[in-house]
Design a protein that fits this description.
Chain A is built from 15 helices and no strands. By secondary structure, chain A is mainly alpha-helical. Chain A has 2 domains: about 10-155, Ammonium transporter fold, CATH 1.10.3430.10; about 180-315, Orthogonal Bundle (Ammonium transporter fold), CATH 1.10.3430. The longest helix of chain A has 25 residues, at about 110-135.
Amino acid sequence: MKMQSARQHWHELTNTNRLCQFIDVILRSYGQVMLQNNPLSGLIFLVGVILGGYSAGKPQIGLACLLAVISANVVAYLYQLNHKAWQQGIYGFNACLIGIALPTFCENSLYLWCSIVLATILSVFITQAFNTILQQWCLPCLTTPFVLTTWLFLLATPSLSALTLQPPATSGAQFSSYSLLHLVPDSILGIAEVFLFNSTLAGIIFLAGLAVNSLKIAIYALAGSVLAIGIALLYGGQITIISLGLYSFNAILTAITLATFSSNQDVKTSFYIVFGIILTVFTQAALTTLLKPFAIPVLTMPFILVSWLWLSFNQTLNQR
Amino acid sequence: MKMQSARQHWHELTNTNRLCQFIDVILRSYGQVMLQNNPLSGLIFLVGVILGGYSAGKPQIGLACLLAVISANVVAYLYQLNHKAWQQGIYGFNACLIGIALPTFCENSLYLWCSIVLATILSVFITQAFNTILQQWCLPCLTTPFVLTTWLFLLATPSLSALTLQPPATSGAQFSSYSLLHLVPDSILGIAEVFLFNSTLAGIIFLAGLAVNSLKIAIYALAGSVLAIGIALLYGGQITIISLGLYSFNAILTAITLATFSSNQDVKTSFYIVFGIILTVFTQAALTTLLKPFAIPVLTMPFILVSWLWLSFNQTLNQR
Amino acid sequence: MKMQSARQHWHELTNTNRLCQFIDVILRSYGQVMLQNNPLSGLIFLVGVILGGYSAGKPQIGLACLLAVISANVVAYLYQLNHKAWQQGIYGFNACLIGIALPTFCENSLYLWCSIVLATILSVFITQAFNTILQQWCLPCLTTPFVLTTWLFLLATPSLSALTLQPPATSGAQFSSYSLLHLVPDSILGIAEVFLFNSTLAGIIFLAGLAVNSLKIAIYALAGSVLAIGIALLYGGQITIISLGLYSFNAILTAITLATFSSNQDVKTSFYIVFGIILTVFTQAALTTLLKPFAIPVLTMPFILVSWLWLSFNQTLNQR
């Protein structure tokens, strides 16, 4: 009841006060990283990002992420792009991920901060251009702007050497067998990895952010993560990588997206959501091999490819 | 006359008996691998696949291929996809190739058989999704589902190590000069390579399968193969590779496809079919270089790229 | 006044004399390499190409380029493709670049000349097919046919060894610091690099060719080149590469294209042209990393990708 009235109060404020409206857009941009068009989810995700940055020993990530989201939304506002999409945080969620990814992969420097601003502005242009191009097939651009922009800057570093890459962190423990006791904590770690963090606490916060908007989606996310770990274990994936949740984060996004976009709730739909999660695990493994010669991470590309495939397929079912 | 009446009898049976209809769809799925919508061609191809598997020392290929075609068509039927396309074997021919490719490239294991079923179901979804996407330009998806799915599983093997790759077979003889006496047998070997087999007998069977449906197409296939060998020899291709028919199989598919889709029979059309075959040889060589760092075979990708280009070009000619 | 009457005289001649019309198309094909639909610009570019070939120690380039442009336009004429586009040189400018690129990268031989003719015919088909495909989004194919065709032949060389690659020229001087005195000559070198030449004289001629059609575009080209050098210097690009104009040529094409296609002249448009040039430099660096395992040059791909992005974005602005 209190929650309800607080929400209504905030809604009225955003309609009358322009600063509140802008804050609302910023929070929804955070929320949209996991497809939640809800400022409270966004606020919780923001807290998770700040904490995640601290636990990774890079407190600047929280600030970089906020700067990225603000500059993306300012640019989208100035260019008067689709206003409704802007209000829902559509122009900000890719910037949010860029603001975490670039400081995670690159050393801190003035060049890094310049690159973050450049990259976030670029992500707005890519979002707009891709939405136009994909409109033909009624497909959303998802996190393509984030993936392409981050790859662009990482791939440019060998030639434009002012931006320097962080040496990759050596993962501590090496496991030879997997204990099922780790299944739930590792699945939660997978949720943290959606925002590129390796922290169970951050994972719990992100899960809470999902749950305040939709308990169903929170359950889908966790189930997707558990299923992905199971498939990777069965098919002989490396246990160290599985334990870090690196097979899970794309599967979680696939699960959320397919559950959000599927109108039907029948057996066939459930079957192909499960199938989509299995496919995400294989795509993750395949893209890892493909990107190895270029030394760039797969980011959320597996989720994008699988979701586009499933959404195209789903359309043809609904057309009949 | 007898042939005619047998065909009519079968046609009546497929209309009344559901099992016969399903068998008809299975056979047409085999036929569609070389674009022949004909159950008799399909039956002959099926025999060729079984024999090819035996001659390659892998008798399980025949069974794997049949399992793949059946499961693809069952899934397409359950999801009630385009019924007319289903009847013509459109949802099955990619599965047929997957059912040959995976046991050829991977070691026999329970994981292999699971992967075959997963991959064939996936190929149905990709077929449907790609047909929707490519509809905008009136292009067929050809063998893209086969190529993408096979690459996916092969690329996933280093990470998901339960599925293990076969060590590549060392080709026996190394030739330093080419005898023209080999031109016809090598061209027939090229036809066998469409189904990934290295057996002249299988090649003859597949050629017969083409001929029972259309003598013209059989001649086009053989001529395409001869021409591709000629171009590869002229441009300094490696003779061992040429002799295995590895420059021919894509050229054969290009020749069949362009001959099938071209309505006109004038000089300009003939010229660009020849040009398409030449281009296929170059694309085969270029893709071999591109895929080398990833250690995956080109499969039928050269044929797909060239055919899409030619079909798009052809459309603009017909629009006028 | 004299210029005006000469132009009018030429225009009348092209309407009455078929040979003059064909010469006009050939010249405009040269002009279109930098988007100038003007036979005089084209004539100046032709002179620049011949001189550039001599200064590179490969006088055959001038002839190869002319042969390429002629054969492309003959094929486009025979296949009766879009007549208006043909008259504007749209079917010839990719052939012009192929006619320079192949003799630059490959050793002189009969195979080279065969490949040039094959490649130019192919570029006409690709131009037509891509224009059909890209029509959906009102995007031009730009220099994609040149890039794809050149990559095709370069990638095919390891397998089809009759066409042999030139060993890459070792660049002479290695610089450790950059003198601003070199900024203007290096920017002009960048203009020469659009036609793959490393000659200041050729650069001045190409700049003059731009200026006779549009002084504004010539200034944009030079400014784009200067800006690209500045960005590359700031971000720690290798000075030897910057001095050769290798960060400039794509930026120049981006500047010309965006200035040509943008109808508005406001601050927002200027801002995103500048942003487009910055992005071109980063894309150049990123593609260099991506193409390294395949040992092929980026050619004008960075310009194509950035221009498509900007033109798609621009459309959505104009739609409102």
